Each structure stands twice: as C-alpha cells, then as structure tokens.
TrEMBL record:
The keyword Plastid does not apply. The active site is at residues 322, 351, 455. Pathway: Carbohydrate degradation; glycolysis; D-glyceraldehyde 3-phosphate and glycerone phosphate from D-glucose: step 2/4; Carbohydrate biosynthesis; gluconeogenesis. GO terms for cellular component: cytosol. PROSITE patterns: P_GLUCOSE_ISOMERASE_2, P_GLUCOSE_ISOMERASE_3. It catalyses: alpha-D-glucose 6-phosphate = beta-D-fructose 6-phosphate. It is found in: Cytoplasm. GO terms for biological process: gluconeogenesis; glucose 6-phosphate metabolic process; glycolytic process. Its EC number is 5.3.1.9. Belongs to the GPI family. This is Glucose-6-phosphate isomerase. Catalyzes the reversible isomerization of glucose-6-phosphate to fructose-6-phosphate. GO terms for molecular function: carbohydrate derivative binding; glucose-6-phosphate isomerase activity; monosaccharide binding.
Length: 533
C-alpha cells in the first residue's frame, strides 16, 4: 500500500481516547472492511457475554465461578453489596497497612522502619506485582522490592544475599490465591529459614495475601503473622493485579495505587463500548483474530520501546497464553487454541531477533508499544538536533515501517508516559481484549486445566524419590544402577525417572547419595553415604 493510502487508513482506523490517553493504531493490519463487518455479530455476542460476566454470571463454568476482576476497580458494579464492601474494605486496609509501614506505626522488631520488601509468589501471584514494581519503581521508593518467584534454591540465595544486612528491615509478603502452591510454600519456608539463621522472628516480618482458610492462611494465623489480606475465588490469578495481590506490594513500594485503579477503571469504561470502532480492546481482539485466523496461527511479539515496560510481555504471556491456550472449546470440541506471546523491548531487540522478524519465517504479528514522553525534564543532545529519546522513537518507527514493507503486520499502542494511571490502562486493556477474544473463539478464558498435569507429575516424582531413598537406606551397603533400583522398587517402567532422580540427588549433598560414574551415564552406580550437615 502506498504511503498516502496508508495515511488515510491510519486516520480512518485510529482509536484515540482523551480520557485514558490511549491511542491504538491498527493501520498496519491488512484486514479488509468486510472482515470487521463479518466479525461484528460475533463481537456483539462477545459484548453481551461480557456484560453478563460483569453482572455476576458464572462465566467460568467448569469451576462454577464468577469472574470479577472488573469489580476490583469499580466496586459499585459488583453483583451484591457484600462483595462491594469486601472490595472497598480490602483496598482501605491495604492502603492503611502500607501507610502504617511507611510512617513507622508498624515497624520491624528491631524498632527500625521496614525498608525492603520480599514478595514470595509465582504465576499470577508474582508476574503482575513484578511488572508493576519494575514499570513504576524508582530509586527513591519507600521500600525496595525483591522477589522469590520460583523454587530455585540458588535464585533465592542470590536474593537473600542482595538484601544482605537489610534483612532485619525486610517485610515479607507471601502471595498465593490457593495458598497451596508448592513453589510459594518452599519460598516461604526458605525465607523463614533465612530469617531464623539471622536470629530474626519471621512471623513479625510476614504478611499473607491468600484465600480465606487456605493452608497459607491457616499457617499465617497460627504463627501470628503481622497481617493477612484476602483473595477471592472470583478473581483469577492472572487477573489479580488490581486485587491485594498487586496492590499491597505496590502500595508498600510507594506506588499510587489509586491512580493505577483509576487508569484501569477508565479503560474498563472504554472497553465496555459496544461500538467496535470505539472499543480499543475489541479492536485488539479483532486484530488478533485477523492475524492468527482465529486459531493462533501466528505468534504475538510484544515490542515496547521503553525499558520500564520490559516485563509487560512476561506478564502478558501468562494472561494471554493461560487464558486462551485451551485444548477444548466451551462445547467440548477439541480446538487446540491459543496465541503464543513473546517479547522484550525495543530498540534492544533490534540487535537480537528482529533480523528474523524482518526477513525470516513470517509466523508472527508485532505489537509495538510507544511511550511519548522520554523522561522527566529535558534531554541533552547526543548529536546536533537529536536526543537519545529521538533515537528511540526513530528506531520504533523504522522497525514498524521495515516490518510492514516486508509484509509483517503490526499494531501500535501509544501511551503518553509510564505512570500508575497508564499501567492501569494497559492492564485493563489486555484483560478485556483476552476476554473478548476468548468469546470470539468460544473458549473458557478463566480456567487452566492443563496446569494441573505438570503439578501432578511433579508430585509423582517426589513420591518416587522418597521410595528410592527409603530403599537405599534399607540397603545401605548396596550400590545401585538406575535399572537395578527401578527393579528393586518393582517399578521397572519408571527407570528413566529413577535415573533422573538419582542423577539429581547425587549432584547435591542433601540426601547423601553418591555416584560412581560409568562411561555411559545410565550405567553409573548410586549409593547412600552418611550426610554431613
Ligand atoms: O496464587 P496461587 O494459587 O499460588 O497460584 C499461582 C499460579 O498457579 C497456577 O500454576 C496457575 O496456573 C496460575 O494461574 C496461578 O497464578
């Protein structure tokens, strides 16, 4: 398409909203007018389903749950007064708690102020808080945030070492909606052990965000943690960033959570519109449907030209892939749906994988995120007439054009700057786009049945490990190959798992398993020795 024709299309399609500051350009998506018209009845149906969801319908049928993340920033829309109250009450207590921590009414047991924040969580209980912390954090924040978002011992050691001598001033926020996620449980126990080693009383540093009466909730209550904040079954983990899950860490860090909620609330209002051209989330869903043929045929590459938005693609990976990546649709048909999401940031990625995007396999569409404001205040010139920020903008425009010239489509989202308000807008925009798109492809966006399989399999591995260790303890003098071990356990078919377990056990001093290597790794012998702890 000629440049001036593209300009006409740009003007014709541009979505610009003064209230949210959001601008959405779909001119580099080559769908014909006919495509939008064809999809319109399905979009109207999606709006109707969304209205039902917001009205409190059981929009997550197989878990028999309501889906209420939109109420978190508009409590008056919750279907019952009790729910409205619980939302406002929790927000008030989150802010009051953060305020008391900041002004020293809630202090560290040594009498000092809490200046560090260690968040323990995973998935939806980490990605949102991490994105918010990184996008809005600054050197002068009230508290400096750290994260345990895995069960990797070395990863946790590194964080504890970074906190270093500030551990006595560290507040630990353990977040788990279910309260039973093993990685988070382990992170909590590792944090507890680190506090104990430092002679500190963990409970006096610990706060929980979790479902009422969950395993975590009970532990926190029995051990008299500093505070507990609720999570509800009608908020999904990946849409929980505007609940206490995201708000508590953000408020503690000193981020203006009211503005974040306000951004989300305003964006929600704009994405409730049933005139598709005026609904930015619908325009995104429509673009995704076009780009991926409604079947995930292409990947979504997220390219924010702003360091602060680096973690947005990771956050969106869960939001989009866990919501849309489904084997079956709502009618039980096998559909193998989803859209793969990846990305990092521009212009950095131009020096990495953009080569392939420009010339290689055309299996993606890009989403550029442009931030108009470069930095607070003015910039020096890096050459006559140009600043670093001018370059960033030039690189964004250059890549957008270069991709389009080689037949690669893109969407561009523009926000004026990265603030709590615009972060709220972006979060709400994608939450709604995912919901609408899920309606278009007829999948339940609010469950994640596939995740359980990996968790169950991990449980089986840990159980088998217990059996192996027990066997080795009962035959201390014997050195086993993995095949002998599997046979002795009467589990010959599990030999590969036995091998992988033994190899891991022998690489670590914890269980006293020693390995005598053979040429072929699977012929190595394993034996128990006394553990020196
Ligand atoms: O918040 P939690 O209950 O600990 O759950 C953390 C994560 O666990 C699971 O793997 C789910 O698939 C995610 O959606 C969830 O965010």
């Amino acid at each position: 398409m000629e440049k001036l024709q593209l300009w006409e299309r740009f003007k014709d399609r541009l979505y610009a909203d003064a209230e949210t500051g959001l601008v959405l350009d779909t001119s580099r998506m080559d769908f014909p007018a006919k495509f939008s018209a064809e999809l319109e009845p399905r979009l109207q149906q999606a709006y109707a389903q969304m209205a039902e969801l917001e009205g409190g319908a059981i929009a997550n049928p197989d878990e028999n749950r309501m889906v209420g993340h939109y109420w978190l920033r508009a409590p008056e829309l919750a279907p019952t007064p009790e729910l409205s109250e619980v939302i406002t009450g929790t927000l008030t207590s989150v802010k009051a708690f953060a305020h008391s921590v900041h002004n020293g009414n809630i202090k560290a047991p040594d009498g000092g102020r809490f200046t560090r924040l260690l968040v323990v969580g995973i998935g939806g209980s980490a990605l949102g808080p991490q994105f918010v912390a990184d996008s809005l954090g600054n050197a002068g924040d009230r508290m400096r945030p750290y994260f345990f978002d895995n069960t990797d011992p070395d990863g946790m050691d590194r964080v504890i070492a970074e906190i270093g001598t500030a551990l006595p001033q560290t507040l630990v926020v353990v977040i788990s909606k279910s309260g039973g996620t093993k990685e988070t449980r382990n992170g909590m126990l590792e944090a507890q052990a680190a506090f104990q080693r430092a002679g500190l009383n963990f409970a006096a540093h610990a706060v929980a965000v979790t479902g009422v009466d969950s395993e975590l909730d009970r532990a926190a209550s029995q051990q008299r943690w500093l505070a507990r904040f609720p999570m509800w079954d009608w908020v999904g983990g990946r849409t929980s960033v505007t609940s206490a899950v995201g708000l508590l860490p953000a408020a503690l860090q000193g981020i203006d959570v009211d503005r974040m909620l306000e951004g989300a609330r305003r964006c929600d209002a704009s994405t409730r519109r049933t005139a598709t051209k005026e609904n930015p989330a619908a325009l995104l869903a429509l673009s995704w449907f076009h780009a991926t043929a409604g079947k995930g045929a292409k990947d979504m590459v997220i390219l924010p030209y702003k360091d602060r938005l680096l973690l947005f693609s990771r956050y969106l990976q869960q939001l989009i892939m866990e919501s849309l990546g489904k084997e079956k649709d709502l009618d039980g048909q096998v559909v193998l749906q989803g859209i793969a999401v990846y990305g990092n940031k521009g212009s950095t990625d131009q020096h990495a994988y953009v080569q392939q995007l420009r010339e290689g396999v055309p299996n993606f569409f890009a989403t550029f995120i442009e931030v108009l404001k470069d930095r607070p205040g003015t910039s020096g010139e890096v050459e006559p007439g140009a600043t670093s920020g001018d370059y960033l903008s030039g690189f964004f425009q250059g890549t957008r054009t270069a991709l389009y010239e080689s037949g690669r489509e893109s969407i561009t989202i523009t926000v004026p700057e990265v603030t709590p308000f615009t972060v709220g807008v972006l979060i709400a925009l994608y939450e709604r786009a995912v919901g609408l798109y899920a309606s278009l492809i007829n999948v339940n966006a609010y469950h994640q049945p596939g995740v359980e399989a990996g968790k169950k399999a991990a449980g089986t591995v840990l159980k088998l490990q217990g059996e192996i260790l027990e066997l080795m303890r009962s035959q201390q003098s014997r050195a086993f190959t993995c095949e002998e071990c599997a046979l002795a356990l009467a589990r010959p078919e599990e030999v590969e798992t036995v091998f992988l377990i033994l190899r891991h056990l022998a690489a670590n001093p914890d269980h006293g398993v020693h390995m005598v290597s053979a040429d072929k790794p699977w012929e190595s012998r394993f034996q128990l020795r006394a553990v020196a702890r």
